Amino acid sequence: TIGTLAAGTSKVLNVTYSVGAGVTAGVKTNSATVTSSTDGPHTATANVTVATAAKLEITKTPDIQLVTAGDGIVYTYLITVTNTGSSDAHNVSVVDTWPGPAGSLVQGAFAPSQGSITNQDAAGNFTWLVGTLPSGKATLTVNYTVPATTPTQTFTNTVVASSDETDPNNKPTASAVTEVSNPIIPTAGEGVAVLGTDDGCPVPPVVRVVDKFGTIVSFFDSTNGLYEPGFKGSVRVTSGDITGDGIADIIVAPGRGRVGQIRAFIASGTGVSTVYTYDSRYDTLPFGATWRSGVEVAVGDVNGDGIGDIIAGQSRGAGLVRAFLVGDPSSPDPVANTPYRSFRGYPPTYAGGVMVASADLTGDGKAEIIVGNNAGMRSKVRVFDVTGTPTVIRTILPFTSKYRGGVTLSVGRYDGDSVNDIFIGAGVLGQSNVEIYSGATGAQLARLTAFSSFTKSNARTFTAGVDLTGGGQVDTLYGVKGLNGSGGAKGVRQYNVATQVTSPLTSDPALAPPLRIAPIPRPVLQAARRR
Predict the structure, then answer these.
(1) N or C: which end of the chain has fewer CB within 10 A?
(2) Does the domain spanning 56-181 belong to CATH 3.30.413.10?
C-alpha cells in the first residue's frame, strides 16, 4: 500500500525472487496493477524466460553378462537414470529395446524405484515411465532367463532416456551385451581345481592342477617357477583371468618363511591343451620386501575393466588387505606398483591375519573384496565395496557365536540367481562344517557336514565349488583338509549337491594333507572381453 502519492512524485518497490527446481521451462509473465480512488486501474507486464538446468544421464550394468543357454539362472541388470542438473526433469521416460529374435532372452520381474512399466510387447521391449526426476537418480532392476534354445551369439540391449527438457537429437543412451555360450562340460584331462600345500606341510611347496576325476594334469614346484628349493613353507592358490583373454590363470603366494611375493602362472590354450607358464612380469610384493609372515591371495576385477586384479591379505598380524590393478598383458610390468585400495579387514584390536576372496556381489560389474578372520575371534566375514573408500556393505556371522577357530573362503554360483555365493569353511576345531551364503542377500543357503568323514575332521577345511555338468551352477563341491590335517586321509573328497552324497574324488598319495584347494573358472568367449 502506497497511500497518498503527491503529483509529480514516484515510489519504487524492489522485489527479489528465486525460481524453484520444479518450475517448467518457458516464458513466464509477471503483471503489476495500480489503482487509486481517483484513477486506474493501470497494468504493466514483464516477461521472464525460464531455462532448465536438468540434464539426464543413463547407465546399464553390468555392461557385459556371460550366460549359458538353458542354465536356469535368473540374471539381473540395472538401469540407472540420473538427473545431474539443478532443475527437475519432467516426464522422464526410458525405452528399453530388447535384442531379437523374440524369445532369445525371456523377461522376468521389474523393480523400479519410482514410476511404472508400460508398452511391453512380445519381443520384450518396454518403456519405463519415470515421471518427474529431481536432481538425483532413479533405478530399475530387470530380471531375465536364457532358454536352452537361445543361439550362441552376442545380444545387445539398448536403453534410451528422454524428458521434456531433453534435446530430441541427443538423447542419453546406454547399451550392454549378453554373451550366450553353450554349456561347457569339462572333459578328462582338463583342469577344474588347483591345489597347494597348506601350513604345516613337511615338504617344500607344490601346486597341482586336477581334472574332474582327480587326475593331476599340471604340476609346479621349484623347478618351474614355484619359489626356490630352500623354501619349505606353504603356498596359497587361486585362479582367475589376469590377462583378459578369457582363460583363467593360476596365482600363488607363499606362507611364512620367505618374502611374501605373489607369482602368476599364465594359461595358454584351452581344455586339455591348457599350459601354465610362470611369468615373472606379474611378480608382486604386496606388503614390501621385508614381509615374511604369509600372504593370502585372490583375483577379482575391482575396477570393472574386464581384467582380473590381484588381491592380497596378510596371513598373520594386522590383516592388511590390498588390491593391485592389473593392466595391459603386453606391458613389461602389468601389475601396478601402488595399491588401488589398502585397508584393514578388522579393527586394530585384532591381529590374527585374514583370508580373502572376491566376486561381484552387487551387479555393478566391479568385484567386492570378501575378508574372513583366522583363529582368535568370533567368526566374522565382511564384504567390502572398494569402488571408493573401502566400505563394509555386509557382515556374515557363520557357525556358532562361540566358535573362534577361523574360516576359509571360496565363491561360486550355488543358488538360482546370477550372483556368486560365498562358501565359508570352518577353520581349526570346526568339525569340517561348511556354510554357504547368498552373495546377493547375505542369507544362509545351506549348512553342510559333507566333509565330516575326513580323518582329522577338526583340521581346517578348504572347498572349491565346480560345475561339471555345464548348468552354470556349482553341482559339485570339492573339499580338502588344511592346517592340522597332517597324517589324515589323503586326496580330495567330492560332495554332489543334487544327491547330497560325499565320496572320494581321488586318494592319490601325492595329495597328502595339509592342502588348500581353489576352483578354476571356466573359459569365456573371447568376444565377451571388455574393450
Answers:
(1) N
(2) no
